[in-house]
Amino acid sequence: MYRADKLSLLQVTILCSSTMIGAGILTIPRSSANSGFPDGWIIVLIQGVIFAFIAFLIGWIAEKNAPDTIFDSNTKGAGAFFGTIFNLIMIAYLLAIVGFEARVLGEFVQFFLLQSTPMTVIVMLFLLVAIYHLKSGIFPVVKIVTYVYPFTMLIYIGLMLFSMRIFDFDYLRPVMALELKDFGKLFSQTFIQFTGFEIILIVVPLIYKDKWSKAKWAAAIGVGITSLVYSLTLFVVIGSMTVGETMLLTWPTVSLIQTLELEGVFIERFDIFLLTLWTCQQFICMLGFFQFAIKGCHTVFKTTNLTRLLWLLFLVTSALSLFPKNINEVFYFSNLLGYSMFAILAIPFTTFLLLIIRKKWGGRSA
Question: Cis peptide leading into 348, omega within 30 of 0?
């Protein structure tokens, strides 16, 4: 499944940023507004610095463990039993993200396009199409990301800047007039949107060997780009709609774009660009996590029957995506995934320390 192809640093940067953005640009305004403060655009920049540093560290760990992926390193560092437990936790985390991404995609498409279509049908169709693509491996997925991501960002940033015509600075005031406890509340509402950069732990062995030492910078830059996009989104959406209105909308970013109209031109509604490109972006984001979950399953279960594995994972991700009963439970699910990210990030640091101890004491790493 993993051919001799290799990834460039640019592709890794785009992949890290793309897997993070996913549903984030549509949901982060509501998450931030739930805190009741308009300072989310500043908090996201601070979080970007923090998570870029964390991405740099785990990229450095992945570089030291290369050509092993995190799944191989877990077994070598923690032993067969605990390493397998770590791997199963990571696989479960990746599959949960796939289920969440598929459900958000289904909610979005049903809300704006297919109101009468059952959620089960929409979600399963997207997952079936994903299975068809996943048979080709990770490299075609990365190539699709590389092509779609620049167009998505260019058009999205253009729409955000165009929305400045109804922007009001008063909606962002007062600036940083919050206490320490309020800062913590706002911080916790937005950090969950940074899930995704941890895929660098799996990607490094797929990079050209002479570029391994720069992979950590690619991950950090990917986080930095994403934080800038998030900050722009919060700045424009809340600055155009107020905190009170934003927290009442399910998809505030799309609602803002829908208010933009130019009469007398060929295209009067600009939300069609966002709906189309974001659907592609979200689907590709889901593909990336799905592919890495498959890689973990291959490592743990040593399976050679890819078709059977894909159908099994299809059933698992379908169940996970359809488990939330409504959109509020979907957002609660995303909160759980955000907090789970810290447990996942603890695994590579733990494994790396165990590998150092084993090496220093002359113990075997398997």
Answer: no
Domain ranges of the chain: 9-349
pLDDT digits (tens, 9 = 90+) for 150-166: 888 888 888 888 888 78
Name the CATH topology of 9-349: Amino acid/polyamine transporter I (1.20.1740)
Q: What is the pTM of this model?
A: 0.86
Residue pLDDT, tens place only, 264-304: 555 566 677 777 888 888 888 888 888 888 888 888 888 77
